[in-house]
């Protein structure tokens, strides 16, 4: 079993005072934190030096150190340095002490050190107040000291001697400033495995600060730290490879998502263009609806006017019918009176008259003939008026039929316009609902895209970050799950989103077809209206002033003929005066 003595691995069966005096070589592994370079230190202690270490000297004798030299240049972390261990004139180094003593000048090492200089040193093995000047060098995690004269040789040749007076391992040591009675800038180096403390002193405060900092930094290099550093390096390399692989996968996904976003952006531009077309169609649609409503109001007014005209024609037909009946009744009465008059004339001709009345007979006969002519004239007038009334009745019937057909036509056109308005209103509402749903879906898609982009940015920052902790890993897992969910939703909605432009185009074509149908309906309606206007007579919806005057005159004539009592009295007077002479004086009168 080995126990750590500072930075050196030493046998555990030796007592503390003689632990460092083993003749066999033991490797010392140390790793510098920024460089992570493994060094191998071969420590050999001759038998003659064991007594000195048995007295409590915790340092290596001059002949006990054999330091390896790494190759020039930096190496990969965790790579073991191999090759020539020393820079010397001989091709090989013998482990014998005699050869080391003989070739002491040839085994100098030319390498870099962390710090060197002259310090005051108090004896380590015994309690003494005497201070002596020594030349100290800090090499990796070891403090080497020589006689003061070695400084000149080191500064001249830039080699440090591999046979120092002593070596102090600094790994895990506690270095702190201390004031001594004669040395105000003293430093104490202590370790739990040291038998006593190492006291050094500088000439000035600046040198003390410089040595303290370098000693404390060198004390961080230990065997445990080296093992931990190597394990951490391997773990970090594995994590780096895994993170690089994951980063590449996420970059591939990011590229795919970027392409998908570009495609969605193009689809969104296409949808915006279609929305603009739909807005223009909607504006035209509203204008067409407004025109249809105006035309519907106009047709409604025309229907009302047609209905009033129909009522007037019906009233006129009734009056003409009454007038015709009255004229027919008057003609019948006149026919009866004419027949009676003719019978009376026949009786007068056949009946012999006395001589005294010969002078009055021609007068009575002339009166009867005159009355007969008046009756015939009146009958002809009444027949002419009857024919005129029948003609007017036929014209009114034709007008009534035309107005009825026109009313039916306008009713059908109004119903067609009403149906078109209802269809257009339903299509408008459907288009608005589709637009609202499409805008809502697009806003939701943009929101999810923003969330996915934020998750991607957060994930990329987490992957590029060198510091990793549990919170960041949890956040990265949440981002990954969010992206996975987003990708799944994109896959589910891909087909619908791909078909959305086709649906919008179809809706546009539907609105265009509806507009064309409305325009065609309006054209046919105007054409039919024009044909009806060409077919019907002028002023079909109202009678002229002349026709109204004729109707009024006809009514007055019919009323006068039906109430002509003088004509009837004269006829009755003639008929009553013919049989007897008593009526002659009245007739003469």
UniProtKB/TrEMBL annotation:
Domain PH as annotated: residue spans: 112-220
SMART domains: PH
InterPro entries: PH-like_dom_sf (IPR011993), PH_domain (IPR001849)
Domain of life per record: Eukaryota
Pfam families documented for this protein: PH (PF00169)
Alphabetic keyword roster: Coiled coil
Cited Gene3D superfamilies: Pleckstrin-homology domain (PH domain)/Phosphotyrosine-binding domain (PTB) (2.30.29.30)
Keyword check for Plastid: no
Coiled coil start-end: 233-469
Official protein name in the record: Pleckstrin homology domain-containing family D member 1 isoform X2
UniProt source species: Cricetulus griseus (Chinese hamster)
């Amino acid at each position: 079993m080995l126990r750590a003595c500072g930075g050196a691995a030493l046998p555990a069966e030796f007592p503390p005072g003689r632990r460092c005096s083993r003749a066999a070589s033991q490797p010392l592994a140390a790793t510098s934190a920024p460089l992570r370079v493994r060094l191998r230190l071969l420590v050999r202690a001759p038998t003659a030096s064991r007594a000195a270490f048995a007295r409590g000297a915790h340092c290596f004798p001059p002949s006990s150190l054999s330091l390896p030299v790494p190759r020039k240049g930096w190496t990969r972390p965790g790579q073991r340095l191999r090759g020539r261990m020393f820079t010397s004139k001989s091709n090989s180094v013998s482990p014998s002490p005699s050869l080391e003593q003989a070739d002491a000048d040839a085994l100098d090492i030319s390498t870099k050190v962390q710090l060197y200089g002259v310090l005051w040193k108090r004896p380590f093995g015994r309690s003494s107040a005497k201070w002596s000047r020594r030349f100290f060098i800090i090499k990796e995690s070891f403090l080497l000291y020589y006689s003061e004269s070695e400084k000149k040789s080191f500064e001249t040749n830039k080699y440090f001697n591999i046979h120092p007076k002593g070596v102090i391992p600094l790994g895990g040591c506690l270095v702190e400033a201390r004031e001594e009675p004669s040395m105000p800038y003293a430093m104490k180096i202590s370790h739990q495995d040291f038998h006593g403390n190492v006291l050094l002193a500088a000439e000035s405060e600046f040198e003390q600060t410089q040595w303290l900092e370098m000693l404390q930094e060198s004390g961080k290099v230990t065997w445990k730290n080296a093992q931990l550093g190597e394990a951490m390096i391997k773990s970090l390399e594995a994590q780096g490879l895994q993170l690089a692989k994951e980063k590449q996968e996420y970059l591939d996904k990011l590229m795919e998502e970027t392409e998908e976003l570009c495609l969605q952006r193009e689809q969104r531009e296409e949808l915006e263009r279609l929305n603009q077309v739909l807005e223009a169609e909607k504006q035209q649609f509203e204008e067409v609806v407004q025109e249809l409503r105006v035309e519907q109001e106009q047709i409604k007014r025309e229907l009302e006017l047609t209905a009033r005209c129909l009522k007037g024609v019906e009233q006129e037909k009734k009056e003409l019918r009454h007038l015709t009946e009255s004229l027919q009744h008057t003609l019948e009465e006149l026919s009866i009176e004419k027949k009676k008059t003719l019978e009376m004339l026949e009786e007068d001709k056949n009946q012999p008259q006395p001589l005294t009345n010969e002078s009055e007979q021609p007068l009575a006969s002339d009166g009867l003939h005159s009355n007969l002519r008046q009756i015939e004239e009146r009958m002809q007038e009444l027949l002419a008026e009857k024919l005129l009334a029948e003609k007017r009745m036929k014209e009114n019937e034709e007008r009534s039929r035309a107005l009825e057909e026109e009313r039916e036509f306008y009713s059908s056109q109004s119903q067609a316009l009403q149906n078109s308005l209802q269809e257009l209103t339903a299509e408008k509402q459907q288009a608005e609902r589709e637009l609202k749903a499409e805008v809502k879906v697009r806003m939701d898609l943009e929101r999810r895209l923003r969330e996915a982009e934020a998750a991607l940015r957060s994930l990329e920052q987490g992957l590029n970050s060198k510091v990793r902790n549990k919170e960041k890993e949890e956040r990265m897992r949440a981002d990954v799950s969010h992206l996975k969910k987003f990708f799944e939703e994109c896959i589910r909605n891909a087909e619908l989103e791909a078909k959305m432009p086709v649906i919008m185009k179809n809706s546009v074509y539907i609105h265009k077809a509806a507009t064309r149908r409305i325009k065609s309906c309006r054209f046919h309606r105007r054409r039919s209206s024009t044909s009806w206007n060409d077919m019907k007579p002028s002023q079909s919806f109202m009678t002229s002033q002349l026709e109204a005057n004729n109707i009024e005159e006809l009514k007055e004539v019919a009323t006068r003929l039906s109430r002509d009592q003088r004509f009837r009295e004269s006829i009755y007077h003639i008929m009553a005066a013919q049989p007897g002479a008593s009526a002659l004086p009245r007739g003469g009168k």
